[in-house]
């Protein structure tokens, strides 16, 4: 078991560690040195005042340039981050969101089941306006082949639908006000 010596100054330091110890102590001492202390050490080492001042000025300039460059780089990084964020926001807002929100398209609207007959019927709207009747009926029409035709003048509303859908339409319109179905017109 190694015990620390009773007095640290009596400890023996091998040759290979002595140099590293003195070098490291010099580095630590230099970190906290004042310019006046460094200038005195330079004079002791035989370095001229002019050479020391030139080296000191170079060091200060380099440090200022590094600081300025770091600030410029940081500013550019912030600007780039902002521009990328804006670009991604535009991309998501104009391209991705509209394409991910389910919107019925011709390919997603079902076709009338095979063997189910379609027919057109004209509806006198009674108390409803054409637009009110269309808004009431449209949710009931779920097939691609369903149609609603407006007349050019106020008159009956022509709807192409299945027999079941016509029954639902009549119930919905009758519930809104008195409405009657006019003679059915066969679909060509």
Short structural summary:
This protein has five helices and four strands; from the N terminus they run αααβαββαβ. It has helices spanning 15-31, 35-44, 49-100, 130-137, 163-176; strands at 118-124, 147-149, 157-162, 180-181.
Mean pLDDT metric: 78
Write down the secondary-structure element order. Answer: HHHEHEEHE
Quaternary structure annotation = single chain
| Largest sheet descriptor | 4 strands, antiparallel
Low-confidence stretches: none
Tally the helices: 5
Rg over C-alpha atoms, rounded to the nearest angstrom? 45 Å
Overall tally of domains: 2
Number of strands: 4
Note the gap between the termini: 108 Å
Order the strands across the largest sheet as they lie in space. Answer: 2-3-1-4
Beta content: 5-15%
Shape field: rod-shaped
Helix content bin: 40-55%
Structural class, from helix and strand content?
alpha+beta
How do the strands and helices of this protein lay out in sequence?
Elements: H1 15-31, H2 35-44, H3 49-100, E1 118-124, H4 130-137, E2 147-149, E3 157-162, H5 163-176, E4 180-181
Antiparallel strand pairs: 1-3, 1-4, 2-3
What does this entry look like structurally?
The protein has 188 residues and is α+β, with helices and mostly antiparallel strands. The protein has five helices and four strands. Helix content is 54%, strand content 10%. The chain has two domains: 15-99; 118-181, Alpha-Beta Plaits (2-Layer Sandwich), CATH 3.30.70. The N and C termini lie far apart (108 Å). The chain has a four-stranded antiparallel β-sheet, with helices on one face.
């Amino acid at each position: 078991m190694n015990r620390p010596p009773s007095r640290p100054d009596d400890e023996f330091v091998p040759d290979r560690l002595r140099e590293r110890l003195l070098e490291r102590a010099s580095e630590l001492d230099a970190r906290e040195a004042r310019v006046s202390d460094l200038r005195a050490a330079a004079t002791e080492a035989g370095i001229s005042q002019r050479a020391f001042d030139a080296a000191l000025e170079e060091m200060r300039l380099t440090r200022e340039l590094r600081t300025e460059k770091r600030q410029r780089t940081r500013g550019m990084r912030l600007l780039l981050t902002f521009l990328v964020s804006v670009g991604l926001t535009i991309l998501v807002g104009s391209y991705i969101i509209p394409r991910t929100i389910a919107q019925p398209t011709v390919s997603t609207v079902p076709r009338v089941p095979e063997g189910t007959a379609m027919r057109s019927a004209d509806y006198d709207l009674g108390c409803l306006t054409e637009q009110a009747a269309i808004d009431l009926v449209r949710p009931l029409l779920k097939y691609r082949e369903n149609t609603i035709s407006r007349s050019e003048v106020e008159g009956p509303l022509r709807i192409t639908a299945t027999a079941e859908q016509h029954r639902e339409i009549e119930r919905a319109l009758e519930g809104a006000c008195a409405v009657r179905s006019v003679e059915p017109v066969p679909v060509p």
